[in-house]
Amino acid sequence: MKGDVIVEVRGVTKSYGGRAVLHGVDFDVLRGKTNVIIGPSGSGKSVMMRQLIRLEEPDGGQILFDGVDIAHAKGKALSALRRRFGMVFQHSALFDFMNVFDNVAFPLREHTKLSRAEIRDRVFHRLETLGIADAAYKMPPELSGGMQRRVAVARALVLETELVVYDEPTTGLDPLTTRTVDELILEAGERFGLTSVVISHDMASVFRIADTVTVLHFGHVIASTTPDRIMDEVTDEVREFILASGVSPTSVMRGRASSRDEGP
Question: Which letter does DSSP use for residue 131 in this model?
């Protein structure tokens, strides 16, 4: 399995004001797969995400990205590693004062020396691939929630990243749009050969898209396994948390298998 792992999280700890939030967290992120992190509120999901993409530096432990420890990287080394990550923030976090084209072009203007023509070609290639080229000159408030998520994914991919982290990507969306976003995550992963890490509390979404599920509970990893095995490996308390969502993991997994068997 070693060759299938793109990120190894080993013994990561993080405290704020003397209060420990992450307690020696260990899990693997599988290359080219959809890796989902779940857990109750206050479990440390968002804190782990910030360490993973190095928005913050962990207090201890290692985060090995293809064998390189990014946990304590500095300067140019950190900048080079960060360019291999993309981020889709909760509620998309688009700039309302910029049109779609400029939102997607922003990382290229900030982090590359590409010419205007090269930026235009790169942006339109991403927009066309994701089916939103017609919205290039619209403003974010003119777009539906699902379309805004597509723009956010295009922006995350425009630097030709290898791994994309999605922070609660279905928060605030209706069930139909949620399913559209789930399909977008899978589509982007398959089309661009991406590794996806999804932070989520939406259990229906989790069991629809996950190849692996890592469960955080009060800063500890309770289980990290495939979705079909998760209910057998978690504690009673976490099992209750999953079932309290009203979602039957077995039913969702069965529906997922059927839809994949049917194909496009």
Answer: T
Q: What pTM value is reported for the model?
A: 0.86
How far is it, in rounded angstroms, from Cα 207 to Cα 136? Answer: 33
**Number of alpha carbons in the 13 Å side-chain half-sphere of residue 213:** 29
Residue 124: per-residue pLDDT: 95
Residues near 104 by beta carbon (within 8 Å), at least 6 away in sequence = 123, 126, 127, 151, 154, 155, 158
Q: What is the pLDDT of residues 110-163, one digit of tens each?
A: 888 899 999 999 999 989 988 899 999 999 999 988 889 889 989 988 887 899
Work out the percent of the chain whose per-residue pLDDT is above 90: 47
Local structure of residue 2 (DSSP, 8 states): G
Query: By three-state DSSP, how is residue 3 classified?
Result: helix
Q: 3-state DSSP call for residue 23?
A: strand
Mean pLDDT, residues 191-207 taken together: 90
Contacts of 232 by beta carbon, 8 Å cutoff, 6+ apart: none
Q: State the alpha helices, DSSP H only, in the chain.
A: 45-52, 75-82, 100-111, 116-129, 145-157, 175-192, 203-209, 230-233, 236-243, 249-262
Cβ–Cβ contacts within 10 Å for residue 159, how many?
A: 18
